[in-house]
Amino acid sequence: MSNATITYLVGGCLGVVGLAAFCALVLVPAVTAYQRPLHRVAAVVLSFYVLAACVGVGVLLGAVIVLEWPRLF
Questions:
Q1: Residue 55 near residue 64, CB atoms below 8 Å
Q2: Would you kindly state where each structural domain of the chain is located, as residue ranges?
Q3: What's the pLDDT tens digit per position in 10-66?
Q4: Distances (CA, A) of 56 to 6, 12, 60, 64, 73
Q5: C-alpha distances in angstroms, 10 versus 5, 18, 42?
């Protein structure tokens, strides 16, 4: 396998593990905390909103690191 293939494989596996951890640590407790279906749906939507915000912060920090790396080092 080439280095690029290994990089994509590791990135994909980490994405799956991260999503599974999010579901197990955030989504499941949020859903099981409520009994009404509407409240559970709201908990899922808000949990995915938090996930999107965390992904956005990660992408922003990654972009800053990539753009500022030559200037810093």
A1: no
A2: 3-72
A3: 999 999 999 999 999 999 999 999 999 999 999 999 999 999 999 999 999 999 999
A4: 25, 18, 6, 12, 25
A5: 9, 12, 33
